[in-house]
Give the backbone structure.
Amino acid sequence: MIEFRNVTKVYNNGTEALHRINMKVDKGDFVFIVGSSGAGKSTFLKLITCEERPSTGQIIVDGVDVSRLRKGKIPYVRRKMGMVFQDFRLIDHMTVYDNVAFAMRVVGAPPKAIKKRVPYILSLVGLQHKAKHYPTELSGGERQRVGLARALVNNPSMIIADEPTGNIDPALSFEIVDLLSEINRRGTTVLMVTHEHSLVKHFHKRIIQIHSGEIVADTAAMQDSYAPPERYTEAERETAADDDYAEYDNSEPYESEEAEYEDYEADEAEGYDEEYDGEYTDPYNEEYEASVEESEEISQEPQDWDDEEVR
């Protein structure tokens, strides 16, 4: 799924953020990435998402060498990723429903697919009853659930979470990682950067420790001898009473793309209205307009990838 081959990253000011990193994450892994501030964790994630390029070495993401990938190809690689941020990055003047739907609109999903998929994903994170609320009306934990729903809505093959529990109550941190664990159990690869050692100890997952730009520990190398850590009764008590996230299933398949577009064309002919059960209003705003224009430019970019791979 993700492979670093002798990767070094040196910034223009001479700072060597990563030094000769060799690492492989298989499909379906759950990996905690830990390390002190300045260790290189953020650079590590930015190389995976193509925000930065390695100075030397190769990075393979889902079979594609992204080390020297043309800019026009990067959006297609990113469509395989769902991003969860520490500061949520929600659009305050959009409802919960629209924040999640927005991620589908920018990749050109048809309205009928959006109307079907978004309520389903909101139900996965226990927020179906908050669909018409705005981010400012939610708690920190609920806003992070919206961020997670937005990351999941395009059915990515991997979730990349950058300190997702940094701005929420510690008691809710376990809830967010429980959600990520359930998503991972369904087959989605998860990479999570965190400073919270209690989470790392509580959840028996692979741990990669980065120090001064180098991987100094990787529990994948000692799986046979690595014993599960003691589980904290406090976390058990915090999560035991909440069954909102007891069973999550992100495996609902999309209809075939051809069928979706045939349905969409039929709806267009009948004057289909994209209202959400008569209560959802589709906002027309500058962010949406700019994103649609960008997605149209991307879709016109000549590509040498096969259609199925792009999808």
